Amino acid sequence: MKYDPFEARVLPIFGFYIVLIILGILVTIKLAKKYLQRKDTAAPLHLSIVYAFFPYQ
Q1: Transmembrane ranges (predicted)?
Q2: CA-CA distance, 5 to 13, in Å (whole number)?
Q3: What is the C-alpha to C-alpha distance for residues 20 and 26, in angstroms, rounded to an integer?
Q4: Percent of the residues in the chain that have a pLDDT greater than 70, as a whole number
């Protein structure tokens, strides 16, 4: 019995997932650019980031 990972009914799904991955990357880059353009971020956001990276002692 031969195993073929690329069956004809599965190949269109690969294209769909590749398109979803590319769109996700583009949206992430767009959101990151928009976030970096904002200079008036709220102080609680910065405070939560600081505490997120310091473990409890």
Answers
A1: 12-32
A2: 13
A3: 10
A4: 81
